[in-house]
Amino acid sequence: MDQKVAIVTGANAGLGFATAKKLCDEGIRTYIIGRNKEKTEKALKELGAYARACILDLTELEKIPQSIRQIAAEAGRIDILVNNAGINMKKEFLEVEDVDFQKIMHTNVTSVFTVSREVTQVMKAQGAGSIINISSMASQYGIPKVIAYSASKAAIEGMTRAMAVELAQYGIRVNCIAPGFIKTNMSGKALDSDPERKNKVLGRTPMGKLGAPSDIGDTVYYYASDLSKFTTGTVLCVDGGNSIGF
After folding, report:
1. What residue ranges do the domains of the chain occupy?
2. Which of 70, 91, 77, 80 is CA-nearest to residue 20?
3. Could you tell me which InterPro entries the record lists for this protein (predicted)?
4. Closest to 46 measured CA to CA, from 21, 71, 26
5. What is the pLDDT along the chain (246 residues), one digit of tens a residue?
6. Contact predicate 182/211, CB 8 Å
């Protein structure tokens, strides 16, 4: 994998960072896309020699094509795309305004489409590539107060299947990961401060624990490598059984 080139969006923290770390550790030149220059450059130093930075606000769709072309020109190819970047909003359904809903959809869906379309042009010319989209448990079952986020992640899973069918003819595989409750600094603090919610999460998770960010990184690597060479159009829950827990 030392000649492979990857792009990971939203890679300066959390699951994106863990994913980029796994790819870099496996010798893959990895471009981390982030809109905050300071955070992205800090992550770059921690990730090491295989990491490269691309400062880009994905909500500015018109800037995406040029950024992807620059990466392709510099690296010579793009083998792996991980669409990880996304935002959330917690609001009662009746309080969500149109602008709130559209903001989530713009970042979580439209930008994923635009990045994927541009990267696909490079992968098509190569005759190979792997695109990995990041969904959520919010697409697997109903969670209150996250209507826009849930809609956006359901859209990602639908896009995954449609892309997989259409792009297979070009040697491009498209798969999706739906993380369960993963212990990041942010989620860990949130659950620790709300024992009732934490107990509910663990109570319906058969494995009885939260996942680690590296669990997502490992799964991305599976989809990115030839280990999954005959796999496309799938949505894999990495959740300790939470989605089927009772």
Report:
1. 5-182+213-240
2. 80
3. NAD(P)-bd_dom_sf, Sc_DH/Rdtase_CS, SDR_DHRS6-like, SDR_fam
4. 21
5. 669 999 999 999 999 999 999 999 999 999 999 999 999 999 999 999 999 999 999 999 999 999 999 999 999 999 999 999 999 999 999 999 999 999 999 999 999 999 999 999 999 999 999 999 999 999 999 989 999 999 999 999 999 999 999 999 999 999 999 999 999 877 777 788 888 989 999 999 999 999 999 999 999 999 999 999 999 999 999 999 999 998
6. yes
- Told to judge if 149 belongs to the known catalytic residues of this protein, a careful annotator would answer yes
Stated pTM of the model = 0.96
CATH code, 5-182+213-240: 3.40.50.720
Among candidate residues 31, 50, 141, 149, the one labeled active-site is 149
In sequence order, what DSSP letters do the residues of 27-71 get, joined into one string? T-EEEEEES-HHHHHHHHHHH-TTEEEEE--TT-GGGHHHHHHHH
The tokens describing 226, both together, are: 């030839």
